[in-house]
Design brief:
By secondary structure, the protein is α/β, with parallel strands linked by helices. It folds into 2 domains: 249 residues, Arginase, Chain A, CATH 3.40.800; 105 residues, no CATH class. Helix content is 36%, strand content 15%. The protein has 12 helices and 9 strands. Strands 5-4-6-3-2-7-8-1-9 form a 9-stranded mixed β-sheet. The longest helix is centred in the middle third of the chain and has 28 residues. Belongs to the UPF0489 family.
């Protein structure tokens, strides 16, 4: 990105670079906003260098654009999968560089410009991107107001890459100060919490034909809008069905249309309820719905790394950081309570990441926000 972020020449400096460690990834955004408020980061156009097994670049389908631009008031409205784009909509983040491990492929590698703004008819936050990642959540709009452009660059970082490859990668990323270094520990080893939901009946696979949809064959606006509208109706119907299940436990009194989708979900309810009775548990229908929402486009990445793989990825991570300028601040997300970073590996990965950072930068002891958040 060639433009100089607004206010970049008047920035203050931290005495020592802070490292903030959170549990849920969206909690990292408060520290970025605080740094902007403290004039340590520019008011507009910051680059986010994002190491993660997931892009975290969805949008809450019910989030209004005006709420995304409301500063810190938006923070309680965000979740782990949708905290970055609202910050781009507000102008705080102008560029996202997603470094992905080899097993995460939600976006193709390369750079693209994305417009984010308010859908002119609903006021809901939407993007003009026609990529499957956004189409699958019906987040496309061809008619945006109050829009801003941000740049998304996606690249793969593999384990123990040779230094010349690392240098080529660093050169292609073109990272300049000031920027935020953001690390999710599940970059190094990635679980999928939904795989354990009624695993004995392969529930995660059973959800695919219910939640999947067909991508448009053409990318002209008219075709995209029709597919987007159809997908939106599918998601809303599924949400209504599972909300009813959460409240009543079955679909006997469901007042909605008895569509093909209704019958598919009814068949699923029968199988799940039988298995739940056998296990003497109550189905968590919202968790099942959440799992289903990840089943479009093949499902979530899953790769439990060996300790050797983790250490080799740490080496590549370290080599890459040594070729880049020093960030203004670092945010680290554990992502283990929700099952994305394996609980039996998270402490090892965290210690290796923090040790790497402390060896490389002049920094205070990390602020372990995740230990203080509930006290």
């Amino acid at each position: 990105m060639d433009e100089v972020p607004i206010g970049v020449t008047n920035l203050k400096r931290f005495k020592k670079m802070p490292i903030y460690v959170v549990e849920e990834h969206n909690d990292a955004l408060q520290f970025i906003y605080a740094a902007i408020g403290g004039k340590k980061l520019p008011m507009e156009g910051t680059t986010l260098l994002h190491f993660d097994a997931h892009p975290d670049m969805l949008i809450d389908r019910k989030l209004k654009g005006e709420d995304a631009r409301s500063g810190r008031k938006v923070l309680p409205l965000l979740q782990i999968e949708n905290w970055i784009v609202p910050a781009a909509a507000a102008g705080y983040i102008g560029r996202v560089v997603w470094l992905r491990p080899p097993w995460a492929k939600q976006f193709s590698d390369g750079t693209r410009a994305i417009q984010v703004g308010d859908d002119a008819h609903t006021g809901l936050l939407r993007v003009d991107s026609k990529e499957p990642y956004y189409m699958s959540d019906a987040l496309y709009s061809s008619n945006l107001v109050n829009s801003r452009k941000f740049e998304l660059t996606v690249a793969e970082l593999s384990a123990a890459e040779e230094i010349n490859k690392i240098e080529d990668l660093a050169s292609s990323l073109n990272i300049s100060q000031p920027y935020v270094l953001d690390i999710d520990l599940d970059f190094f080893s990635t679980g999928n919490p939904f795989l354990s939901l009624f695993q004995s009946i392969n529930l995660y696979d059973r959800l695919e034909p219910i939640f999947s949809f067909k991508l448009p064959e053409n990318d002209d606006v008219e075709t995209i809008e029709k597919v987007n509208e159809s997908r939106e109706q599918q998601i809303e119907e599924l949400e209504n069905l599972f909300q009813h299940l959460e409240e009543y436990g079955d679909l006997t009194e469901y007042n909605g249309i008895r569509s093909d989708l209704f019958h598919k979900v009814s068949d699923l309810v029968s199988v799940v309820s039988t298995e739940a009775e056998r296990l003497n548990v109550t189905p968590d229908w919202w968790a099942i719905y959440a799992g289903g929402c990840t089943r479009d486009q093949g499902g979530l990445p899953y790769h439990i790394s060996s300790e050797e793989e983790i250490r080799n990825l740490i080496k590549s991570f370290s080599k890459l950081l040594r070729t880049l300028p020093t960030p203004v601040l670092v945010t680290v997300s554990r992502s283990t309570d929700d099952g994305y970073c394996p609980p039996d590996q998270v402490d090892l990965i965290q210690s290796l990441v923090l040790q790497t950072l402390q060896n490389m930068y002049e920094t205070d002891d990390p602020y372990l926000y995740y230990l203080n958040v509930n006290t």
